[in-house]
Design brief:
Layout (H helix, E strand, L loop, with lengths): L1 E6 L8 E5 L1 E2 L5 E2 L4 E4 L6 E2 L11 E6 L2 E6 L6 E3 L2 E2 L4 E3 L4 E4 L2 E9 L1
Parallel strand pairs: 5-6
Antiparallel strand pairs: 1-2, 1-13, 3-4, 5-7, 7-8, 8-11, 9-10, 9-12, 12-13
Length: 111
């Protein structure tokens, strides 16, 4: 399964990021640690130009076939629309979310 995320603002506006989700032997999909979002080069979704993004800002996690957004105690917050993520929050395909000053959108969850 692949998750596609599109950057919707900043210098990377329009860049699409494809994330691969592993399938276990029993057929269950997993992303045990999720996909990291932040300024750090090792993040799955790296946003190095936005200084309001923490080095490790947030994670996307797949739980029971649904995508969830988790803030990692970032300094400037993580938002779904205008709602700040305080606990894990589900994300639907097409939904906009913001880390720091950078907007992103979940494009697809593809099998």
């Amino acid at each position: 399964m692949r998750i596609r995320v599109m950057v919707m603002s900043g210098p990377d506006d329009g860049r699409e990021i494809s994330l691969q989700v592993n399938q276990r032997f029993d057929g269950q999909l997993e992303s045990p640690d999720g996909f990291s979002i932040g300024r750090r080069e090792t993040c799955d979704i790296c946003i190095p130009y936005d200084t309001s993004v923490s080095r490790l800002h947030a994670h996307l996690q797949l739980r029971d076939g649904e995508l969830w957004l988790v803030d990692e105690d970032s300094r400037n917050g993580t938002f779904v629309g205008r709602t700040q993520v305080k606990e894990a929050m589900p994300l639907a395909v097409g939904e906009l979310f913001r880390v720091g000053n950078t907007w992103l959108r979940v494009q697809t969850l593809q099998e």
